């Protein structure tokens, strides 16, 4: 049986709209006018340190770690105020993976604290600490190894920790950086086209592109069966 590696933001939880809108606001406040649509194109799926460096370049301002601290505080406030729902169909996919005894894990550019904020609020009646607890022992963050997508190291790390070969691993991603990382790791990758266009994800090297999580689940069933 293959290992299925799931991205978190944009694959399991619908957080990308919140964070990219916030980054658009903060970029504009710094003097670089960025719309929500431009923010998706510029920032989605990228490491926060890389985003900070880009903002420094565009605005000529030295932001340092204070920007990251301020961004995270505002992100938490928005998450708590707006809530972070699961991606439609993600719960059914996870239940099928569990029922079929298919090994799966989550691998994210985000730190564990952010995953706890998002995953930890979902389905708490079934799982201690929500989906964050559901993935106990199967959560991997780029902050653990200090290597971020599109570097393939995170996916290779997750596969090694789960005892799977890269060629036997399937990644579900929604960003170009995630797709590029999976391809570089030698893994098949299903791209979920939501905020990023199908053509862009295909150009990044996705094995297949789906427009909804039920389509992802159907494709996984065909591949694994």
Tag the structure with descriptive keywords.
Rossmann fold; alpha/beta; 6 strands; globular; 2 domains; DNA polymerase, domain 1; six-stranded parallel β-sheet; 225 residues; single chain; 12 helices
Largest sheet, spatial ordering of strands: 3-2-1-4-5-6
CATH class of the largest domain: Alpha Beta
Instruction: Give a count of the beta strands, DSSP E runs of length 2 or more.
Output: 6
The CATH architecture of the largest domain can be named as 3-Layer(aba) Sandwich
Structural class: alpha/beta
Unreliable residue runs: none
Please name the fourth-level CATH homologous superfamily of the largest domain.
Answer: HAD superfamily/HAD-like
Mean pLDDT across all amino acids: 96
User: How many individual helices?
Assistant: 12
| Sheet with most strands | 6 strands, parallel
- Tell me the number of structural domains: 2
What string gives the helices and strands in order?
EHHHHHEHHEHHEHEHEH
Work out the helicity level.
40-55%
- How widely separated are the two ends? 9 Å
Beta strand %: 5-15%
Shape: globular
Radius of gyration: 17 Å
CATH fold field value of the largest domain: Rossmann fold
């Amino acid at each position: 049986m293959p290992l299925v590696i799931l991205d978190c933001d944009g694959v399991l939880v619908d957080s990308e709209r919140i964070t990219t809108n916030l980054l658009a606001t903060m970029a504009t406040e710094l003097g670089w006018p960025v719309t929500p649509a431009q923010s998706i194109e510029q920032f989605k799926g990228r490491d926060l340190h890389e985003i900070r460096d880009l903002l420094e370049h565009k605005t000529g301002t030295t932001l340092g770690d204070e920007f990251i601290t301020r961004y995270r505080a505002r992100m938490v406030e928005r998450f708590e105020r707006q809530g972070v729902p699961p991606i439609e169909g993600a719960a059914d996919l996870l239940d099928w993976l569990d029922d079929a005894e298919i090994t799966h894990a989550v691998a994210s550019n985000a730190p564990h604290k952010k995953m706890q904020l998002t995953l930890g609020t979902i389905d708490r009646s079934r799982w201690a600490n929500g989906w964050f607890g559901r993935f106990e022992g199967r959560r991997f963050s780029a902050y653990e190894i200090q290597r971020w997508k599109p570097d393939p190291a995170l996916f290779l790390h997750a596969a090694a920790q789960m005892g799977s070969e890269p060629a036997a691993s399937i990644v579900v991603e929604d960003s170009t950086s995630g797709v590029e990382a999976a391809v570089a790791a030698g893994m098949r990758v299903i791209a979920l086209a939501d905020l990023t266009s199908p053509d862009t994800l295909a150009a990044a090297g996705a094995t297949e592109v789906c427009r909804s999580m039920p389509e992802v689940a159907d494709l996984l069933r065909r591949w694994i069966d």
